[in-house]
Amino acid sequence: xxxxxxxxxxxxxxxxxxxxxxxxxxxxxxxxxxxxxxxxxxxxxxxxxxxxxxxxxxxxxxxxxxxxxxxxxxxxxxxxxxxxxxxxxxxxxxxxxxxxxxxxxxxxxxxxxxxxxxxxxxxxxxxxxxxxxxxxxxxxxxxxxx
Length: 146
Known about the structure:
The protein is of the alpha+beta class. 27% of the residues lie in helices and 45% in strands.
């Protein structure tokens, strides 16, 4: 079961939403909806495909965090499956992208593993990541719908 789940409907075609979500070579474009992204790069496997690796520097809980991501599966305009390390914490993320007429429905599931050393901080880390992720989806919706 996922630790964090979000669903949002964006009133734009699936191709436009997918394109904005996966433009990992355009830092300025990503920062429009992910303002906590400080640096970004596809370190292997460009254009984005299964086996690609993405490196990011983000602000998280008041400090810089390095995020390394491996693309496990990518189905254009349908699904993205990722795994990686967010700071010290391994995660797995599945994003389902479903067209619904002229709208696109996104379902995002994140499973975060917080080790025993950070056990007491787990609720705070999970809550902060959930808030940050929810805000990013709202930002994407605003960027694409205006």
